[in-house]
Amino acid sequence: MSLSEKDLRYIWHPLTQHQTAKAAIPIVKAKGAVLTDENGKEYIDAISSWYTAVYGHCNPVVIEAVTRQMQQLDHVVFSGFTHEPAIQLSERLLQILPENQKKIFFNDNGSTAVEAAIKMALQYHSNRGMKRDTIIALENGFHGDTFGAMSVSGLSVYNGPFEEHFLKVVRLTPPQDDSSELVLDQLKKFIASNDCAAFIYEPVLQGAAGMKLYSATALDELLQFCKARDVLCIADEVMTGFGKTGKNFASEFVKTLPDIICLSKALTAGMLPMGITSCTEEVFGAFLDEHPSKGFFHAHTYSANPPACAAAIAGLDLLASEEIQQNIRRISQSHREFAGTLSDNEHIMEIRTLGVVLAIDLKAETERYGALRDKLFEHCMNKGVYLRPLGNTIYIVPPYIISEKQLEKVYETLSSVFELL
Ligand SMILES: Cc1ncc(COP(=O)(O)O)c(C=O)c1O
Known about the structure:
By secondary structure, the chain is α/β, with parallel strands linked by helices. The chain contains 14 helices and 16 strands. The strands form 4 sheets. It has a 7-stranded mixed β-sheet, with helices on both faces. Strands 1-2-3-15 form a 4-stranded mixed β-sheet. Strands 13-14-16 form a 3-stranded antiparallel β-sheet, with helices on one face. Helix 4 packs parallel to helix 11. It is globular. 46% of the residues are buried. Bound molecules: pyridoxal-5'-phosphate. The site of pyridoxal-5'-phosphate has 14 residues, from helix 5.
């Protein structure tokens, strides 16, 4: 039996309607920016495998660090024990996170990083004797697939059957410069008529919404307003973190610092799963008490897994290197130039770039998982470029180590999709 046949027999894939989906493509190798399938066909990974492998697949620096760690300490319970990789990673992260971040809480993926953030925010208020039960979120945001994370996500395509079980959430329109006053008014009304505990947002760039950008200045005003009313600001940097927007963290685009930050994906350089929820001293302080029940009784078995910590430390070394920083600048510049060449293309509704992210909204009607989306996907795969269109939005987030030639091929492939419309 082939791998595909065995896969069909045994496996239930994520985000897949198995009745209509084509068989999954067996990938046997990944190196740098390239994925290789079982027939030896190569694909440039133009989305860094969901924005994880930003320093390239099977990066030798990461492999070396993880291998060394695996031989020293594989895993140990992180409640009551600690270890150097976790301590070192925390120290290193706190050096580059916004300066008010003081504590690192470990989880094991992006959704659980968000889940912990929401629980922290709710308990922060409850520990201080306040009943605050409402979370403010942005329309079309995406924060993950666990219940808390789903509740705050605004993409109904994923949420439908579960909505009646959700947390109490009110939703703001992501503000643009010309709608900032309107959205601020919306926020004021929400805060006046609900007991708002927190505001969760993907700073500046909404990834799963289709790499949509919104105004940093307007976001700043919303954050300031929240802060003044003790509504905790939770920056979900699971997608935006670690250089993708051209800055280490997208929170650097705004002046007001978040109280809580969620990290995952590129955190571990695409090698191992891990999530992190960082917070301020003030948030942490609200959990200190003689009584155990005021502590944060939330844990994941693989919290602070040492090899994952080692991968993350290696990732931070790579991120800080001049080579990677230069690559990020090179890709950003190259994206801007490519976008410029398409500025009056008749098939494009909008083209936008931020850091290594480039997104094109096509003038075409299609559902998020509609037929045109599948056609675009297959067309690019046939040309040896892996990307995942979201409805009529086609976007790339290439690994920082992508070569100029590979990037050129990705652009050529993007330019060729217009013939399908
Ligand atoms: C902004 C954001 N938050 C959270 C998540 C959930 O992360 P995970 O898939 O690791 O649970 C994602 C995943 O795409 C994301 O983009």
